[in-house]
Design a protein that fits this description.
- The chain is of the alpha+beta class and 136 residues long.
- The chain has a single domain, classed as Trna Endonuclease, Chain: A, domain 1, CATH 3.40.1350.
- It is 43% helix and 26% strand.
- It is built from five helices and seven strands; from the N terminus they run ααβββββαβαβα.
- The strands form two sheets. Strands 1-4-5-6-7 form a five-stranded mixed β-sheet, with helices on both faces. A two-stranded antiparallel sheet has the order 2-3.
- It is globular, with a radius of gyration of 15 Å.
- The N and C termini lie close together (11 Å).
Length: 136
């Protein structure tokens, strides 16, 4: 059963994986490199995930492929978007919230590897109304 505690624990584990990757690679690589290494770290810890997950667009009763892709979907519950740039911007929040809504997922995590400390400066957790409906 999906609970708030489960999602919070999962978020913490994924952040731990991201910190491990950052510790080994530093902050000056492409997003795609971090995605590959984060996938390896998640596998090592037995965390299920998918990469480059299609985000469906439903328009006037039609399912359209707008070629939107979520970087990672962890345990079919946590949406993760990866960045490697100087700062996270409000548009990144908006995109992740849209992906969460379209995939019907309650929680999302933005991770920016281009920083000195991921835990302090390189991550942001987002929730939507689905999260508030989950049991504790």
């Amino acid at each position: 059963m999906l609970t708030k505690k489960y999602l919070d624990d999962l978020t913490y584990q994924v952040l731990g994986c991201a910190i491990e990757v950052h510790k080994h690679l530093g902050l000056a690589l492409l997003e795609s490199v971090y995605e590959i290494c984060l996938a390896k770290e998640l596998r090592l810890r037995g965390i299920n995930f998918k990469t480059q997950v299609q985000v469906p667009i439903h328009y006037k009763g039609l399912d359209l492929d707008a070629r939107l892709r979520l970087d990672m979907l962890i345990e079919d519950a946590l949406c993760v978007e990866l960045k490697s740039q100087e700062a996270l911007l409000p548009i990144h929040d908006a995109i992740l919230l849209s992906y969460m809504q379209m995939r019907q997922k309650p929680k999302g995590l933005l991770i920016n590897f281009h920083c000195t400390n991921i835990f302090k400066f390189g991550q942001k957790t987002l929730v939507n109304q689905l999260f508030s409906q989950l049991p504790d």
